[in-house]
Amino acid sequence: MLTRQRHQLILDALRRDGQVVAKAFGESLGLSEDTIRRDLRELAAQGKLQRVHGGALPMAAAEVDFAGRERLAPQEKVAIGRAAAAMVRPGQVVFVDGGTTAVQLARHLPAALRATVVTHSPSVAVALVEHPGVEVVLIGGRLFKHSVVAVGAAATEAIARIHADTCFLGVTGVHAQAGLTTADMEEAAIKRALMAASAETVVMASSEKLGAASPYVIAPLAEAGTVLVAPQASEAAVAALRAAGAAVTVAGRPPQAPGADDRGEAPR
């Protein structure tokens, strides 16, 4: 079998199954595990998958720059942003992470809301400039231009001095085994700091992030209080997260407990 054919079979399996286990995949094709591992290394170098111990996971499509992410699933991000904005209660102090979905959250906060938004995203801060009742605290640091957010020691220290009610977190991958991931080490550290300084975390995840993984782990899936997804999210992807114990809320629908089906009923 040609290398190109093997690569295509691997990518097809990732789209179909959400993962490739090198040993089992090699056995199914009558090939050695070493051959499959070499193929996985080559595909990872091309940015087509994320290698993990024993195999591979789909590469997060959301690793493109900020301008590129604005073109990914825009309708989903509006739905998620609107649902996240409805979770903010009067008088609360909330962290709002960077990213295109976070900007939608800011834009959909009710005009009558009085609350405090703490953010390390200039884009989120600018979206709230004309909101009459929202106090904005902008965290500074080194500007990470790829995501248009502040990172580094100064940002981490400032975040640690605040106790927030809720953190609305952006990620590039949400996977049952790989957990919450992102594409940059410093950004992952900032996101961990946001979670640690908050009473609860809501992860905002459009469809391309579900079942995908990036190189840097933010936290295990269990540390997300809620994973907020769009109505267009794949039922299989949502079911996999719920089976792993995540509390997944579909924007526009009532919250469901971990393990519940789409009718809100727990398995018997």
What's a concise summary of this model?
The chain has 10 helices and 15 strands. By secondary structure, it is an alpha/beta fold.
Question: Biggest sheet: strands side by side, in what order?
Answer: 6-5-4-9-12-14-15
Helicity level: 25-40%
CATH class of the largest domain equals Alpha Beta
Structural class designation: alpha/beta
Report strand %: 15-25%
Distance between the termini: 46 Å
Radius of gyration: 19 Å
Q: SSE string, helix = H, strand = E?
A: HEHHEEHHEHEHEEEHEEEHEEEHE
Sequence stretches where pLDDT stays below 50 over 5 or more residues: none
Query: Please, how many domains?
Result: 2
At CATH level 2, the architecture of the largest domain is 3-Layer(aba) Sandwich
**Mean of residue pLDDT values:** 88
Shape summary: elongated
User: How many individual helices?
Assistant: 10
| CATH T-level fold name of the largest domain | Rossmann fold
Q: Mind describing the biggest β-sheet?
A: 7 strands, parallel
Number of strands: 15
Keywords: DNA-binding, Repressor, Transcription, Transcription regulation
GO molecular function: DNA binding; DNA-binding transcription factor activity
Organism: Pseudacidovorax intermedius
Pfam families: DeoRC (PF00455), HTH_DeoR (PF08220)
